TrEMBL record:
<comment type="similarity">
    <text>Belongs to the class I-like SAM-binding methyltransferase superfamily. TPMT family.</text>
</comment>
<keyword id="KW-0808">Transferase</keyword>
<keyword id="KW-0963">Cytoplasm</keyword>
<feature type="binding site">
    <location>
        <position position="139"/>
    </location>
    <ligand>
        <name>S-adenosyl-L-methionine</name>
    </ligand>
</feature>
<keyword id="KW-0489">Methyltransferase</keyword>
<feature type="binding site">
    <location>
        <position position="77"/>
    </location>
    <ligand>
        <name>S-adenosyl-L-methionine</name>
    </ligand>
</feature>
<dbReference type="GO" id="GO:0032259">
    <property type="term" value="P:methylation"/>
</dbReference>
<feature type="binding site">
    <location>
        <begin position="121"/>
        <end position="122"/>
    </location>
    <ligand>
        <name>S-adenosyl-L-methionine</name>
    </ligand>
</feature>
<feature type="binding site">
    <location>
        <position position="56"/>
    </location>
    <ligand>
        <name>S-adenosyl-L-methionine</name>
    </ligand>
</feature>
<dbReference type="Pfam" id="PF05724">
    <property type="entry name" value="TPMT"/>
</dbReference>
<keyword id="KW-0949">S-adenosyl-L-methionine</keyword>
<feature type="binding site">
    <location>
        <begin position="16"/>
        <end position="27"/>
    </location>
    <ligand>
        <name>S-adenosyl-L-methionine</name>
    </ligand>
</feature>
<protein>
    <recommendedName>
        <fullName>thiopurine S-methyltransferase</fullName>
        <ecNumber>2.1.1.67</ecNumber>
    </recommendedName>
</protein>
<dbReference type="GO" id="GO:0005737">
    <property type="term" value="C:cytoplasm"/>
</dbReference>
<dbReference type="InterPro" id="IPR029063">
    <property type="entry name" value="SAM-dependent_MTases_sf"/>
</dbReference>
<dbReference type="InterPro" id="IPR008854">
    <property type="entry name" value="TPMT"/>
</dbReference>
<dbReference type="GO" id="GO:0008119">
    <property type="term" value="F:thiopurine S-methyltransferase activity"/>
</dbReference>
Length: 196
């Protein structure tokens, strides 16, 4: 399954930072994702006060939405600009502090305490640092991960979720011969082998 034309393609962290600097962020949407609205009940399972994880979070507006519902939101994003824009776009006061376990990483937390965004690579995280999650919203995350890192990403995500958690994953279906990505094409068969 891993033999597609995008297999060798790599987007570096530096290139992601540049996208943010140039405002080349067509992936960012001002409106809440319709599929999150549609499958919200699946994510929440009727429970309140959940811990929800946003891998490769950018400045996704759904983080504010879920936090306003009373859930605790944790995100990870390499671009400090993206993290700061999230808080300023929503006029949320925040504080920032170093993450002792990860050299160079910072954690930005809303003053109300319910949104914590780690500014570092997702591969620096572990459950001993961020704990485990009851739900995951994976949109623009697995599909943004370099194809060579998918296995590592999936193993990490499996490690970060509680037993009875829900993982909502959005992928993009298209002909990988026609676009180089990201977003990358991740076939259903590969999702099955990655996540079991
Ligand atoms: N999920 C967001 C953003 C999708 S774009 C949304 O729905 O809008 C992918 C994001 O991942 C970019 O903001 C990029 O800066 C960030 N990113 C790329 N590689 C990363 C990594 N290894 N660790 C953390 N963030 C990363």
């Amino acid at each position: 399954a891993d033999t597609g034309p995008q297999k060798e393609r790599v987007v570096t962290e530096e290139e992601w930072l540049q996208k943010w600097e140039m405002g080349n962020i067509g992936f960012h949407k001002e409106q809440r994702h319709p599929l999150l609205q549609k499958y919200l009940d699946v994510l929440l399972n009727g429970k309140s006060g959940l811990r929800i994880f946003f891998p490769l979070c950018g400045k996704a507006v759904e983080m504010k939405w879920l936090a306003d519902m009373g859930h605790t939101v944790v995100g990870v994003e390499v671009s400090e600009q993206a993290v700061k824009e999230f808080f300023s776009d929503h006029s949320l006061p925040y504080c920032e502090e170093p993450v002792p376990e990860i050299s160079g990483a910072k954690m930005f937390q809303s003053t109300s305490g319910n949104i914590s965004l780690y500014c570092c690579s997702i591969y620096d995280l572990s459950s001993s640092i961020v704990g485990k999650f009851d739900g995951v919203w994976d949109r623009g995350a697995l599909v943004a991960v370099n194809p060579c890192d998918r296995q590592r990403y999936a193993s990490l995500m499996i490690n970060l979720v509680e037993k009875n958690s829900s993982y909502l994953l959005v992928t993009v279906s298209y002909d990988p011969n026609k676009h180089k990505g990201p977003p990358f094409y991740v076939p259903e068969s590969e999702i099955k082998s990655l996540f079991g």
